[in-house]
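Supplementary Methods S3. Input chains for the assembly prediction are listed below.
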Amino acid sequence: MTAMAPSTVDYARQVAEQVLDPELPVLTLAELGVLRAVELAGDTVLVTITPTYSGCPALDEMRADLRKGLREAGFAHVEVRTVLSPAWTTDWISEDGRRKLTEHGIAPPRRIGPRLAGPVPLRLDPPSAVVPCPRCGSRDTVELSRFSSTACKALRSCSACAEPFEHVKEI
Amino acid sequence: MSFDNAYEGLTAEHDDARWAYGSGFHDEMSTVDREIPSTVDRADLAAYALMLGDDALILSQRTAEWCSNGPELEEDVALANIALDLLGQARLLLTRAGEVEGAGRDEDRLAYFRDEIDFRNVRLVEQDNGDFAQTIARLLLFSSARLALFVRLSASADPVLAAVAAKGVKELAYHRDHAAQWTVRLGDGTEESHRRMQAGLDRVWPYLEELFTAHPVEQRLAAAGVAVDPGELRAEVDAVLDQVLTAATLTRPDVAPMATVSGRAGRDGVHSRPMGYLLAELQHIARSQPDAVW
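Predicted structure tokens for the full assembly:
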């Protein structure tokens, strides 16, 4: 992409919204819901992101990719900030993001709504909710492990097409 | 714009911002309201953040020892994920501790250049892993207590602790469920798995009491609405543990709490034998090459 004359915060936002997530590169940071704000302060673009998990190792890659993308788009001064609150939730993954995940063989998270006040209920059985197979659509799938190749995903298997698949687990 | 390869930035960007150790990386919380409530004693707040951060750091280190040694690949990955979550919590809390202390110590300085007596973690987290059942037993006790703690701490008068806790609740809920489900699977499994799960619980149970024992720092900060008195957690955590043990056909261990030294334990820097070995492994690279960056 050739650098254009950066004039507005809208353009900076457009550029930032196109940056891909390093670990789920089928999604942009905007679709993943980690891009919280893009503002202009003088000639500095201020980008605010939030981590998915406390220890998400991709966070520093996101910073670097945002700075690189914005610099290449002509913004000389870029500052990427991290905000912890409110905590990221998979409910912030956009409809487009959910569709793209499915198309790439990753089951999107279900919508969970805000956490209820009080103690977190213990779950001794695997979640009963149906997670359809992103490949064949079968609802006959099982959880193999609640943890997978990245902190944000669980590992499942489809009983119909016998393929394993990943599932962005709800938080 | 976008990259064809999401990792292009790795080679294109030449700053050090993405490397944790030796980078001076400390802007994790740049837009969290970092004001310290005026009623709060700075030394106490720094000490408290260090306690919670050290618990996570040391258990992260222990749990990561399973990496490549797990009983199956999925479990190897699961324990590594849990260790990573705890490391993330530790980094945020140590950063906060250093910032509030105001003596110029960042997360790396606090993790790598303190001696054993200056660590404030409970003794449960430093114990050797033992077998898989013992590791699961420890995770069950720790995550049950920390989840109950973080739910309450989400309402802390300190905005950073509140934010770290609210985020941590989501992670700890997965850790506790994972440990609980394994406890049931092993306890209600074969004769051998039952025996080893019970033995694992018996081994770690003496350290449970320390999780509910309030340090004077915690008592003072709890009164100020910043911390949680861990004694308040006991009933809730006991109920969770009883629920798990019942489903797992296991017996609540009838053991005396681990002895203290005149009432002093991990929160005062009084640790057990495995701690020194753990720190040697955790710290030796940083201490051998104190100016290293990469």
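Residues 16-26 of chain B have pLDDT under 50 and may be disordered. Chain B touches chain A through 64 residues (CB under 8 Å).
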